[in-house]
Design a protein that fits this description.
Chain lengths: ~250, ~250
């Protein structure tokens, strides 16, 4: 699905650069600027600095005069606005709307079955005035990022970052970098280690076999929670072995 | 649950301001800076400008020399790092980890039942070097925001914004501003409007009653999808009425 980010009348060059970066980390690269304050905004120093390597997004970006020119090929338009407009499209939280749009959650009763759009555009108004009513009216939905009711002042690039993140997650997301697998050792290996440790604790005179209290069950629970790997079991047995050897040496 | 954001050796004042703003829009206000580059960073012009009104977060923020001093009262530590460390804590995506931490999803088999922590700290390393290994090792988990595998360069404030958002959502989220409720009219009201419209379409010679083709079923489907409100039904009946009146006038 084609995804486009449209910035309308943006004033700060730094924000344009930060938006390019925010899009690129989430794998999006179609940026259109409608009547930005600076006609050379894509080449300004502050823009390039804040883009921090997302230069291809800036190079590919288009500057147009009107919103109409920005919307070719798009068939689902998402406004972003903090305050709902009377007569405007329904206001929705991004996650909820994206799930419905992609047919991942039951639509509102009575609604048409979901037809996934071919092109989705996210529209962001100027830093100072937000979106004009006329621009909001033509959209299919108005996305509102749920913020503290007493402080809803989201930076433009921060808003793009959150929408790009939620949209990427809804589209299936990126995998995390290959994680170091950490399979826990089995119960038998853990029990073997505990027996070894118990001998060592007796040897160093910490555990009295005649009055063991509940030490070993406590340690068993502790290690159950920690769920050690085979390698960690090996380390712990090494510690037990060293304790036993030192105790033997001391008592020689 | 107490939530704290800890920035370690941050170099850019603008980022500190942007972080304060990112926290505040998600309703968080406990910020601690460990050995920032500028000792007066909380009062620098760029900081205050980028905080954009989140001044109370800056006023309340603490500057300390060591990570230890930043962690009083915290019992669950989340590192943030793009690359997992050998011997470090398990790497998790924020949403998945937060759900598990709050007991909202089944824990991994064999894990202990979730005990919700009293204080959760999110640790962010310096812009240039990220977190030191020693600092990552002491954490319970390493959060990794899923980004494009070819471009994972998240701005510091953008990373804070995403973590603060996911954490706030996991904690229950904020409500959207009161939406204009839009209850759809019932089927009878819709059918009445369609009958009225049909008469009007005949009157203006658009619909031939002798050869109606499938016009009315098509319009019926169109209005079913649009799910008009009572008010919109009223508008549409007004249109039909005006069409009927004008047709009568024309044929007089």
């Amino acid at each position: 699905m084609h995804s486009r980010f449209v910035l309308i009348q943006t004033s700060h060059a730094g924000n344009v650069g930060a938006v390019a970066r925010a899009m690129k980390v989430m794998g999006f690269d179609d940026l259109v600027l409608v009547a930005p304050r600076w006609s050379n905004v894509l080449r300004r120093e502050e823009t390039i600095q804040r883009a921090s390597g997302a230069n291809d997004v800036l190079t590919k970006a288009r500057i147009v005069d009107t919103l109409d020119e920005a919307l070719d090929g798009m068939d689902h338009l998402c406004a972003t606005a903090m305050t709902p407009r009377d007569f405007g499209p329904p206001t929705r939280a991004p996650r909820e709307h994206f799930a419905a749009l992609l047919g991942q959650s039951p639509e509102a009763p009575g609604a048409a079955p979901p037809n996934q759009p071919g092109g989705v555009a996210f529209l962001f108004g100027s830093e100072r005035f937000g979106m004009r009513n006329e621009d909001v009216y033509r959209c299919h939905t108005c996305l509102s990022i749920p913020t503290d009711p007493h402080f809803g002042s989201l930076n433009l690039a921060a808003a793009v970052q959150l929408i790009a993140y939620d949209w990427r997650q809804a589209l299936g997301g990126f995998a995390l970098p290959p994680a170091t697998a950490r399979p826990a050792a089995d119960a038998q290996a853990l029990a073997g280690m505990l027996t070894h440790l118990e001998q060592a604790l007796v040897a160093v005179d910490f555990l009295d076999p005649a009055a063991p209290k509940k030490l070993m069950p406590r340690l068993n629970q502790l290690f159950n929670r920690a769920a050690p790997t085979d390698e960690e079991i090996h380390i712990l047995r090494g510690v037990a072995k060293a304790m036993l050897q030192m105790a033997e040496k001391a008592k020689r």
